[in-house]
Design goal:
197 residues; 2 domains; mainly alpha
Length: 197
């Protein structure tokens, strides 16, 4: 079945991201906000929909059609071999895209994939197929550790930025010019310091 809605007309990589976000429980409003900021999406909307932005209703419609097709197709694909390599390639593509909490999503996805692939190793006889599966598991592990390290670095950088903002604000407040006191206020302050009040 050929779909003709706004989401269906988007490039496949964008549709795949929409599907993964739906799969992870993201809200329609959050997804549409992200979509409407993407240059590739804006180009499609200009060309085919007179620039009209995507509304949450488009996501709801997609969720009952295209998303279900994607979910069905993705659940029927084998984990190992070329499908696994394609998954790793897609993860590398996603790492370069601006998304919320990407490191955690990648780590979760790779952790599940790693566990599934590890379970298959026991069923394979010695030979090239087993070695290829083992390489795939090791590649996934390296990717998982990389995602975890990237996430840690990102959190550390965010914390440093917050610390710098706090220090800059504190410095700004400390260096603000003090309001000038009236002669009466100056006399009262002197009496207060000398304890003659």
């Amino acid at each position: 079945m050929t779909r003709t809605g706004k989401i269906a007309r988007l490039p496949k990589d964008i549709r795949d991201i929409v599907n993964r976000r739906l799969d992870n429980g993201h809200e329609a409003g959050e997804i549409t906000e992200w979509l409407n900021e993407q240059p590739a999406v804006k180009a499609v909307l200009e060309k085919k929909f007179e620039g009209e932005p995507i509304q949450p209703s488009s996501i709801h419609t997609w969720k009952t059609g295209g998303y279900l097709d994607w979910k069905s197709a993705s659940e029927s694909q084998p984990v190992g071999g070329r499908g696994f390599a394609a998954l790793l390639n897609k993860i590398n593509e996603l790492k370069r895209m601006p998304m919320l909490n990407l490191e955690a999503d990648i780590a979760l996805l790779l952790g599940v994939t790693l566990a599934m692939e590890s379970g298959r190793l026991d069923a394979l006889a010695e030979g090239e197929e087993r070695m290829n599966a083992l390489r795939a598991v090791l590649d996934a592990f390296v990717q998982l550790r990389g995602a975890e390290l990237d996430g840690g670095k990102l959190n550390l950088a965010r914390q440093k930025l917050e610390d710098l903002k706090f220090a800059a604000e504190k410095c700004r407040k400390e260096n603000e010019p003090k309001p000038k006191r009236t002669p009466e206020e100056q006399q009262a302050r002197i009496r207060q310091i000398l304890g003659t009040e």
